């Protein structure tokens, strides 16, 4: 469950102008011209008038890298809008009451307060005994997520998925971490189509062609295990399938750079590089986070290019959970204060793992 929180080199912009030769020297300063060889049109006579020669001149003007990046982003977003086409927007269904948790199951500190805890500044490191507990929580989260994925079918409601997930978690003696976190009313997050994350399960039936991210976190023996995956419902369009595949690959690329001593900023760089190959946007608002006895803590894991300082340390656990969009990376949060959708209605996909930093790499803990 995610936590919500320039180009330096000059580029060139071509501009064409039909101008008389006499005005050539009065355009831009010579220092800004890259190419200005005129294509001359010779004099012609029309009636009693003689038309002076005119020249087609191609200018090249230096502009800032930021300007060029913004122009490219706008063009890509317009192209993506054509790709995902008109799809009925996501609508809120009926939300049923929160499900009960047996009294004997240990709860995280926030469970009964409905308050949204602040991000803890504590980095979470683990000795061998703590790692065993951490692995048990993460393994359970992975099994629950795999089970939830088998329920994704047309006509099934996200509320039904929530009930099944809740039952499996409490039968294992664990607490569903999202329940009661900042007042979140359900035991799992279900984010459909244009929902980036934190979707609240409700009475809406899944449709053939939907994509749905299911985000599972369990609290077992004092430790949180956190993972998510985007599933295909029925037969989505090839464009949506490509988005989902690329998002999973971005997660894999991000994990691949992790090891003791590696810079955190490498994660965002690698994810951005891969997403850009396909023209997808990487959402900036939501981040990965440290996880363990505390649900959300430092380090903050940024999934786009950044210069955030800090290096990974052996024994540390955190999540990587990139969200990619087919269109705009801007978002809108519904009045429920949780459900966050893309501003332009374009599809979004997300994948997440909890990892343990080792001397030579990273161990994925949320893998069955």
Automatic annotation (TrEMBL):
Q: Which family, according to UniProt?
A: Belongs to the peptidase M24A family. Methionine aminopeptidase type 1 subfamily.
Q: Matching NCBIfam families, A to Z? A: met_pdase_I
What are the recorded GO MF terms, alphabetically? initiator methionyl aminopeptidase activity; metal ion binding; metalloaminopeptidase activity
Pro residues compositional bias, start-end = 97-108
Q: Which reaction does it catalyse?
A: Release of N-terminal amino acids, preferentially methionine, from peptides and arylamides
Pfam families with a match to the protein in the record: Peptidase_M24
Cofactor binding description? Binds 2 divalent metal cations per subunit. Has a high-affinity and a low affinity metal-binding site. The true nature of the physiological cofactor is under debate. The enzyme is active with cobalt, zinc, manganese or divalent iron ions. Most likely, methionine aminopeptidases function as mononuclear Fe(2+)-metalloproteases under physiological conditions, and the catalytically relevant metal-binding site has been assigned to the histidine-containing high-affinity site.
Under the heading HAMAP family, the entry gives:
MetAP_1
Q: Which UniProt keywords apply?
A: Aminopeptidase, Hydrolase, Metal-binding, Protease, Transit peptide
Write the signal peptide boundaries: none
Looking at the record, the residues that make up the Peptidase M24 domain are 133-359
Question: Which cofactors are required for activity?
Answer: Co(2+); Zn(2+); Mn(2+); Fe(2+)
Binding positions for a divalent metal cation 2 per the UniProt entry: 226, 289, 321, 352
Q: What protein is this chain from?
A: Methionine aminopeptidase
Query: Out of the domains of life, which is the source?
Result: Eukaryota
Q: Report the EC number(s), separated by commas if there are several.
A: 3.4.11.18
Q: Where is this region: Disordered?
A: 87-108
Example GO BP: proteolysis
Q: Which residues bind substrate?
A: 198, 296
